[in-house]
Amino acid sequence: MLISPAYAQAAGSSSGSDLMTFLPMIGIFVVFYFLLIRPQQKRSKETKAMLEALQKGDEVITAGGVVGKISKLTDQYAVVEIAPSVEISVQRAAISQLLPKGTIKAL
User: Is residue 1 part of a domain?
Assistant: First the structure.
C-alpha cells in the first residue's frame, strides 16, 4: 500500500493551555475598553450633563457651526438667536458646545 494509515494523537489538554488560548482575546478586550469604550462613555455623560444644564441666555455652538444665544428652551428644542431679531429652532441634541459669556461680542 502506498498510503499509510494516520492515527490521531491523544488530546492532552490542560487548564493552562486553555487560559493561554483566550489570553490574547482578553487582552484585546481590555485595551479596547480603556482606549475606546470608557472615553466614549465619559464624553457621552459630559454632553448629556451640558445639555441638561442649558439655560436661557447661554451662548452655544450648534452641530452645524452656528453661533448664537439661547432665547427659549423646551424639553426637546431650543430657540437660538443668531442675530438681532433672527431666531432659529434647533433640537437640544444639535447643540454641541457651550461657550463662555461674552464670546459672541468678541467675534
Answer: no
Do 102 and 58 reside in the same domain of the chain?
A: yes
Q: How many CB atoms lie within 10 A of CB 54?
A: 15
Listed in sequence order, the residues at least 6 apart from 90 whose beta carbon sits closer than 8 Å to its beta carbon are 62, 66, 77, 78, 80
Phi, psi (5° rounding) for residue 80?
A: -115, 125
Query: For 4-53, what is each residue's pLDDT tens digit?
Result: 776 666 555 555 677 788 899 999 999 999 999 999 999 999 999 999 99
Same domain, 37 and 63: no
Task: Please answer whether residues 81 and 95 qualify as being in contact, where contact means their C-beta atoms are separated by less than 8 angstroms.
Answer: no
Residues 78 and 68 in one domain: yes
Contact 66, 52 (CB under 8 A): no
Neighbours of 104 (CB within 10 A): 14
Alpha-carbon span 102 to 23, nearest angstrom: 54
